[in-house]
Amino acid sequence: MQRKVIISCAVTGSADSPGKNPAVPVTPEQIANSCVDAAKAGAAVVHIHVRDPKTTKPSMDGALYREVVERIRSSGTDVLINLTTGPGARFEHDPNDPTKAGPASTLRGPQDRVRHIQELRPDICSLDMGSLNMGNRVFINTPAHLQTMALAIKEAGVTPELEVFETGHLLLAKKFLDAGYVKGQGMFQICLGISWGQPATPEAMMYMRNLLPAGSPWFAFGISLHQFPMVAQTVLLGGHVRVGLEDNLYLEKGKLAPSNAALVEKAGRIIQELGDVVATPNDAREILGLSAARN
Q: What single DSSP character describes residue 151?
């Protein structure tokens, strides 16, 4: 029996990537257009960060989020909107005084990180379920801050995508579910290949998958060259997939991806070659237990 597999497209992210691939969208108009194109290519969910249009750097400006969301909602597409809450967690030591935050740190309080969620009420928002050494910096998400964010997200009626980068994150997410901080059965995103989290291997994905609560819908992705092998592995293990220029800039070895839509189309072909079908937004709402599209 064919299974309906959801494709989520992470369209831009927060890495310093626009200079590496000109297809990475930067302005609210570019981000919204890329989301709409990804939806036309088969994405049922679009995962959204915003950037400062002048510097291309990551931003937490609520007006930028609002413009992107309004442009998507007015486009006529019924794609599910998934806004990030990740910005505001980066920490680096001041090289001259390790007791202080360095200039690249972006630490913000939990209320600041979910304000745009409360105001815009997307279908879904990400919630990173723990801290991590991420490259040479630290990604800080304390349990107390996460609890504050989770309860604010629940009050807003938004479904959190519980992003887990390693086993401890998944165990904390299960505790949040048991405590009632998260509504429903939970929706998980297994994030693989990020330094220094869980590696992008079949064994790592299966281990994480086996720890999930019974019945919880789950997605997974691998970054960079692992993106499409992990698409296939996710489908084989019964999950849903994520692709996009946030995680990978290449369509194949040595060939930059011309668009998010091209990455979605390739993921769709893999799903179909493995005998399943690409889920529509309506399918995704049913699978994830979400209400009708928000206007």
A: H
DSSP notation for 31-88:
HHHHHHHHHHHT-SEEEE-EE-TTT--EE--HHHHHHHHHHHHTTT--PEEEE---TT
CB atoms within 10 A of CB 262: 19
Q: What is the pTM of this model?
A: 0.96
User: What's the rounded Cα separation, in Å, for the pair 88 and 167?
Assistant: 23
- Tell whether 293 is covered by a domain: no
The dihedral region occupied by 64, where left means phi > 0, alpha psi between -120 and 50, and beta the remainder, is: alpha
Q: Are strands 250-252 and 240-243 parallel, antiparallel or unpaired?
A: unpaired
Residue 295, in any domain of the structure? no
223 is a domain residue: yes
Edge-to-edge strand order for the sheet containing 132-134? 90-91, 137-139, 132-134
Cα separation, 174 vs 162, whole angstroms: 10
Q: 240: domain CATH number?
A: 3.20.20.70
Q: What is the residue whose two structure tokens read 């064994």?
A: 203
Helix (H) or strand (E) holding 161: strand 159-164
Place of tokens 């019945």: 215
Q: How many domains does the chain have?
A: 1
**Least confident residue range of 18-22, 153-157, 180-184:** 180-184
Q: Is residue 55 part of a domain?
A: yes
**Are the C-beta atoms of 234 and 205 separated by less than 8 Å?**
yes
Q: What is the pLDDT of residues 52-83, one digit of tens each?
A: 999 999 999 999 999 999 999 999 999 999 99
Domain region containing 127: 4-288
Question: Is the pLDDT reported for residue 218 higher than 70?
Answer: yes
Q: Which residues pair with 90 in a beta bridge?
A: 139
Reply yes or no on whether the pLDDT at 184 is more than 90. no
